[in-house]
From TrEMBL:
Main location as per UniProt: periplasm
Listed SUPFAM superfamilies: Cytochrome c
Residue stretches making up the Cytochrome c domain: 25-103, 112-188
Organism encoding this protein: Methylobacter tundripaludum
Keyword Heme: yes
Recorded GO MF terms: electron transfer activity; heme binding; iron ion binding
UniProt-listed InterPro entries: Cyt_c-like_dom, Cyt_c-like_dom_sf, Cytochrome_c4-like, Cytochrome_c_Oxidase_Subunit
Binding site for heme c 2: C124, C127, H128, M166
Subcellular location as annotated: Periplasm
Binding site for heme c 1: C37, C40, H41, M80
Origin organism lineage: Bacteria, Pseudomonadati, Pseudomonadota, Gammaproteobacteria, Methylococcales
Full protein name: Cytochrome c553
Length: 188
């Protein structure tokens, strides 16, 4: 039996082939596309307004998933649905690669609230990473605008933003918990 007839060799070759990216994302193409994002998300994805999230250093997989969800109408935001309507999968990959490669800024948070939030943060770190820098499909919370995080937690709690695990977690938190957690993550 030659090596290509060996099931282990075939399995290995198949695994290697499937692991190869079809095409690598182009950060410079993403930077050009990101010119449309600056008005809300700021230069290099560092939003100055709590109305819009910081995209800099966000998880590439998370950004890709969110952009696709906006495009498909699975995540509702009229502005983002409009912005993503004409993006190709390649555009989305390039934007995600660009923003994930940028250095984030810290937004800060009330120190007293942050201290209280630190004591509660462990429930978040399992999914969002030990330093809250994100974990693949789970977003970076570190350095995010505290008011933005509070808005998102409220949206999960009232059901206007969908995610089974986050809706379950938010349902068991008070508004004071939201503020404390958001202040802590914003301070990282």
């Amino acid at each position: 039996m030659n090596s290509l007839q060996n099931p282990l060799t075939l399995s290995f070759l198949l695994a290697v082939f499937l692991a190869l990216p079809v095409s690598a994302a182009d950060i410079s193409a993403g930077e050009k596309k990101a010119e449309n994002c600056v008005g809300c998300h700021g230069e290099k994805g560092n939003s100055r307004s709590a109305q819009w999230p910081i995209l800099a250093a966000q998880q590439s997989i998370y950004l890709t998933n969110q952009l696709k969800a906006f495009k498909a109408g699975d995540r509702i935001n009229l502005m983002m649905q409009s912005m993503t309507a004409n993006l190709s999968n390649e555009d989305i990959a390039n934007l995600a690669a660009y923003f994930s490669s940028q250095k984030p800024v810290k937004t800060g948070g009330d120190p007293a609230l942050a201290k209280s939030g630190e004591a509660k943060a462990n429930m978040c770190l399992g999914c969002h990473g030990s330093t809250a820098a994100g974990n693949g499909q789970f977003p970076r919370l570190a350095g995010q605008h505290p008011d933005y995080l509070v808005q998102q937690l409220k949206a999960f709690k009232d059901g206007s933003r969908k995610s089974g695990p986050m809706q379950g977690i938010a349902a068991n938190l008070s508004e004071d918990d939201f503020k404390a957690l958001a202040a802590y993550f914003g301070s990282l």
